[in-house]
């Protein structure tokens, strides 16, 4: 019996184009410990953990004639050194040179002839630090059977976890005639299978409308969004093959102080700060804003499975990370009023279904923001580009240090993929007292993404210093 990709997993392969590779990434910076942390140790660490993730040693095999969805098969030529790569920056490497390298790495699609993931071990950073840059295809991480590799690489202590028993022996892939026979057999048993396979990559108006209804909470609102597309502007541009990436760290205590001062949530404060930064950035582009000007953000949120009593890994499956559309009031000049608008918009989303609060997610053992960001990208990828302006995915992380082997993680920046005609995607996570932003932009349309990053800091200071 072949292990066929689900319709959702296959769709991420069908819609992928050279300019819009469908992988999610992360940039983690580590303090090098006294006993060292080098490429060989990373290879050993990944090798010991792969037994927990069989999918990471499988590749996608298409069915001749596209008679059915592709299948997962063991990679009989699996080469760990191909997937775990080594690179270096000219010393002393800075964050700017690291992010420039990340931009180039993220622009390259993954090789479909091999398992759909890569890790880069980056040396040469100042102060002896090293970085790990990960790339994982959206088809790979479903949140239940397969999580992001970072979830197994990172531990809550610097002590070595006992490696699991790994007796992996690759199975021979099915032959082309066998793939065809299996596809025909499925079509005979289930005549609609062939039609479903042909329609998987299509994005029709009905499907888009249904997603919009779920995202903004009602048929009337959905109809208005379809009739009145997202506001036009520099964020909706044709995406080229180039990328530009930058990261930013802010203090979690600043957002907690805003929460205490205004009675909002930390998430509200984060989005209000982003809204202020986007307002200033649009003004720097000499765009005219009026008090009613908005930017529409697609914001994926985790929701509880209706049959799950409380949030757990079992309830975190791809169809339970739901995208919501949130209007960001970039035309509002007062930062506190922006915060209030955001709070009202978020409450409307949180009241719909059983959305998961950050506190609940942090109670889940083994929770990894990287997996949540992968699921967020999956939830967003099937949306029409004319419905929203920017993808923003915020996932809380642990507030205690994490380690790869004996190396302590000092910083983590998410890298969200760009969708068709979406020039900017923002990933956010909190970790050990910091709130980390990862801004991934199209190299032509968002050439000034570093300017936007600086405006996030300015917007945070503005909101902190406002007396209301």
What does this structure look like?
With 468 residues, the chain is α+β, with helices and mostly antiparallel strands. It folds into 2 domains: 3-155, Chloramphenicol acetyltransferase-like domain (Chloramphenicol Acetyltransferase); 205-398 and 413-465, 2-Layer Sandwich (Chloramphenicol Acetyltransferase). It is 35% helix and 23% strand. It contains 15 helices and 16 strands. It has helices at residues 7-14, 39-49, 80-83, 95-107, 150-153, 176-189, 192-199, 205-216, 219-227, 252-262, 266-284, 335-350, 358-362, 369-381, 449-465, and strands at 3-4, 23-31, 58-61, 71-74, 84-93, 117-125, 130-137, 154-155, 243-251, 295-302, 321-328, 390-395, 403-404, 407-415, 424-431, 434-442. The strands form 3 sheets. A 7-stranded mixed beta sheet has the order 5-6-7-2-14-13-8. It has a 6-stranded mixed beta sheet with strand order 9-16-15-12-10-11, sandwiched between helices. Helix 10 crosses helix 11 and helix 11 crosses helix 12. The chain starts with a strand and ends with a helix. Mean pLDDT is 84; it is low at 200-227, 308-319 and 357-367.
């Amino acid at each position: 019996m072949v292990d066929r990709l689900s319709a959702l997993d296959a769709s991420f392969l069908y819609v992928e184009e050279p300019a819009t590779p469908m992988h999610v990434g992360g940039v983690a910076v580590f303090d090098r410990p006294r006993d060292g942390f080098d490429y060989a140790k990373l290879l050993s660490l990944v090798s010991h953990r792969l037994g927990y993730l069989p999918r990471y040693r499988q590749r996608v095999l298409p069915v001749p004639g596209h008679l059915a969805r592709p299948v997962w098969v063991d990679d009989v030529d699996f080469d760990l050194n191909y997937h775990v790569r080594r690179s270096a920056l000219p010393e002393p490497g800075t964050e700017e040179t690291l992010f420039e390298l990340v931009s180039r790495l993220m622009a390259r699609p993954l090789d479909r002839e091999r398992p759909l993931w890569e890790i880069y071990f980056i040396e040469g950073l100042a102060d002896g630090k090293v970085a790990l840059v990960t790339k994982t295809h959206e088809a790979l991480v479903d949140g239940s059977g397969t999580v992001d590799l970072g979830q197994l690489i990172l531990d809550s202590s610097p002590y070595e976890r006992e490696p699991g028993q790994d007796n992996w022996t690759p199975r021979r892939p099915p032959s082309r005639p066998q793939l065809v026979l299996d596809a025909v057999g499925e079509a005979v048993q289930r005549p609609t299978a062939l039609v479903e396979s042909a329609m998987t990559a299509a994005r029709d108006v009905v499907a888009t409308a249904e997603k919009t209804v779920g995202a903004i909470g009602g048929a009337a609102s959905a109809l208005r969004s379809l009739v009145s597309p997202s506001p036009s502007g520099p964020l909706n541009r044709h995406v080229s093959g180039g990328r530009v990436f930058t990261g930013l760290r802010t203090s979690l205590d600043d957002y907690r102080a805003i929460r205490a001062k205004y009675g909002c949530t930390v998430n509200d404060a984060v989005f209000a700060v982003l809204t202020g930064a986007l307002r200033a950035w649009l003004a720097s582009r000499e765009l005219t804003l009026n008090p009613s000007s908005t930017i529409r953000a697609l914001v994926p949120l985790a929701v509880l499975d209706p049959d799950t009593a409380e949030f757990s890994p079992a309830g975190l499956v791809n169809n339970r990370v739901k995208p919501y559309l949130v209007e960001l009031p970039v035309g509002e000049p007062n930062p506190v009023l922006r915060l209030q608008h955001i709070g009202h918009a978020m409450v409307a989303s949180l009241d719909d279904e059983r959305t998961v609060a950050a506190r609940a997610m942090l109670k889940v053992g083994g929770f990894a923001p990287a997996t949540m960001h992968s699921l967020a990208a999956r939830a967003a990828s099937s949306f029409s580009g004319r419905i929203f302006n920017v993808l923003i995915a915020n996932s809380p992380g642990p507030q205690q240090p994490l380690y790869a082997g004996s190396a302590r993680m000092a910083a983590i920046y998410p890298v969200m993929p760009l969708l068709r005609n979406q020039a900017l995607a923002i990933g956010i996570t909190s970790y050990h007292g910091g709130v980390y932003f990862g801004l991934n932009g199209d190299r032509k349309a968002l050439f000034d993404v570093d300017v936007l990053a600086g405006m996030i800091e300015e917007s945070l200071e503005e909101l902190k210093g406002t007396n209301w």
